[in-house]
Design a protein that fits this description.
By secondary structure, the protein is α/β, with parallel strands linked by helices. Helix content is 38%, strand content 20%. It has 12 helices and 16 strands. The protein starts with a strand and ends with a strand. The chain binds zinc ion (ZN) (2 copies).
Amino acid sequence: MQILPGIFQLLTPFPNFTFDDARAIRRDLRDHPRVVKGLPYVLPYMVKDRGETVLVDCGWNTDSAYEALETGMREHGSHPTEIQRLVITHVHPDHYGMAGRLKRLSSCEVVIHEEDAKVITSRYFAPKGLADDMAKFMAMNGVPSLDTPSMAQGSMMMIDKVSPVPPDTEVKGGETFKVGGFDFEIIWTPGHSPGHICLYEPNRKILLTGDHILPTITPNVSIHAQTHGSPLGDYMRSLDLLADLDVEVVLPAHEYDITELKKRIIEIEEHHILRLDEMVNCVDRGGSTAWEVAGRVKWTTGMLTDFEPFMQRAAVGETLAHLEYLFEQGRLAKVMRGSNLHWLPA
Ligand SMILES: [Zn+2]
Ligand SMILES: [Zn+2]
């Protein structure tokens, strides 16, 4: 789908969706924008101008996602072999999964933020250590031991669908790159991922937001075994960073494009403020583990005990991001008791 002359929104399906089904959902959302559950597809963007071709994000490394990308690029007079530069908003498998395959096909320059480049090896090339660290990390946060192996395995299943490649160029944010007549500014927006970037084109007033800002979903901001600092604090600061940009079209990597950037930023901030208040109230006077707090939170998708192990892990990680941010704000304290981390009212 052409967004503006030279900018095209493509679509690649998630592994459990066919291209046709994912495309039908996208068309339906274009006609009836609304809240949707789950992620049927990723929206890569192709910038093709004056003989130059850049792709932003790609999709999972499945044959059907590749065929979808090829079909989409062909519809707009291009082909994956013509990609000169592949910019990855962050190294989650749905955005980065096909990067190695595209690199082999096109010899494109792969561009990734240095903070996300750091985790590629431990996450995709040598993930065994990460699974062990994750099991220990979950145990420390009170996740019952019976559940920890299956939770760690959850992340191993997706590695089959990623073709990793190290970046050719690592960026820090603040750089500008040209594609034909477009000037894209790279903005570092850590939170959902430590090296997440957004791309801003000030002349055309467009902002490619990756997973940082989505129309109805709030991206998962969580703490796991590899995390340093306070990702939710980073995320909230990264929202503020974009709030005053002059933007007419927001191009996210899921759901559908929107026009009102500031309104959406305020909605997301309000969601987290409410969630933070809820989390404080879920902490016992005597202290609670993240697992206990997560078990009391009213998740939009139901109760923690009914979730699949992979989603339980995500919920514990998200709970921890809120608890850590509350700690950063001085609203909670934390203490190790034996091998468990407990959170207490400050
Ligand atoms: Zn993501
Ligand atoms: Zn995503």
